[in-house]
């Protein structure tokens, strides 16, 4: 998905695909709504803020743990 299309467009597209997958899941599975976790590790703050403005509330980052 191209960054030029915007964060809001990308989030809508991904959420639509998730909802389509939810609609196809077997009915005998629990009806638990999946949660989209946006990866913010390498993204600029303005992009994360824009995603938040478009309704994204769960963000995640991971780092190598050194001992």
The residue fraction in helices comes out at 40-55%
**Structural class determined from secondary elements:** mainly alpha
Weakly predicted, low-confidence segments = none
Please report which band the strand proportion falls in: under 5%, 5-15%, 15-25%, 25-35%, 35-45% or over 45%: 5-15%
Average per-residue pLDDT, rounded, comes to 90
General shape? flat
**Quaternary assembly:** single chain
Run of helices and strands: HEHE
Strand order of the largest sheet: 1-2
* Number of DSSP-assigned strands: 2
Radius of gyration: 15 Å
First-residue to last-residue Cα separation = 37 Å
Structure description:
- The longest helix is centred in the first third of the chain and has 18 residues, at 7-24.
- The protein is mostly helical and 67 residues long.
- The chain has helices at 7-24, 45-53; strands at residues 38-39, 59-60.
- It has a two-stranded parallel sheet.
Set down the secondary structure blueprint.
Blueprint: H1 7-24, E1 38-39, H2 45-53, E2 59-60
Parallel strand pairs: 1-2
Features of the shown structure:
single chain, 67 residues, mainly alpha, two-stranded parallel ribbon, 40% helix, PyrdxlP_homeostasis, PLP-binding_barrel, YggS family pyridoxal phosphate-dependent enzyme, pyridoxal phosphate binding, pyridoxal phosphate
Quick structural summary:
GO terms for molecular function: pyridoxal phosphate binding. The chain has 67 residues and is mainly alpha-helical.
């Amino acid at each position: 998905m191209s960054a030029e299309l915007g964060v809001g467009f990308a989030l809508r597209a991904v959420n639509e695909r998730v909802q389509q997958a939810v609609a196809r899941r077997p009915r005998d599975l629990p009806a638990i709504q999946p949660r989209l976790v946006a990866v913010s590790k390498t993204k600029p703050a303005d992009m994360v803020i824009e995603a938040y403005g478009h309704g994204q509330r769960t963000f995640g980052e991971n780092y190598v743990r050194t001992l």
